[in-house]
Amino acid sequence: MNIIAQTANQTAGVTLEDAQQYLTFMLSGETYAIGILRIKEIIQYGQLTEVPRMPAFIRGVINLRGAVVPVIDLSARFGKQATKVGRRNCIIIIEVVMGEETQNVGVMVDAVNAVLEISASEIEPAPTFGANIRADFIAGMGKINGKFVIILNIQHVLSMDDMAELASVGTATTGELAQTG
Known about the structure:
This protein is of the alpha+beta class. The protein is built from 4 helices and 11 strands. Strand 4 and strand 5 form a beta hairpin.
C-alpha cells in the first residue's frame, strides 16, 4: 500500500514540475507568452529616453533604479509595425543571459494579460512555417482554452549579438544614406 501511495505522490510531483508558469501578453492582436522565471517586473510605459541612430525596434532606454535599461519594441523586433503607445502599454523587464553575465532588457507590449500555468503536455513544438515571426523565436505553442498561445524563446528574441549586428547594419545604412544624400 505504501509503495502505491509513494508512486502516486511521485507521479503527482512530476506533473507539477512539468507545469510551468508563463506571463501572457498581447502584441498586435496576438497572444504571446514568456516563461515567468526570466521576468523581473512589469512597469507602466513611460519616462523613455530616445537614443539617436538606433534601429527601429529599440525604442530607447529607461532609468530603472539607477540602471540604464534598453527598451525593445517587440512588434518592431518581429518585423511588424512599431507599437502605438496607448494607456495599456507595459514594459516587461526581463533578465537575458549573456555569457556569464545577465543584462536587464525591457520589452514593450500592448497589454499584459495574466500568469498562467501550462503543462508540458499542452505545449506543441514550434511550427516550421506559417508563423509571423522567425522560427527560432518560438519555443512552442501552448494550448489554453482551446486556443494557441505563442511561447517565445526570449533568449533568442533578445539575443544581444543578433541585436548588435542589426544595430550596426542599421547605423551603417543610415550613415551611407547621409553621405549620399
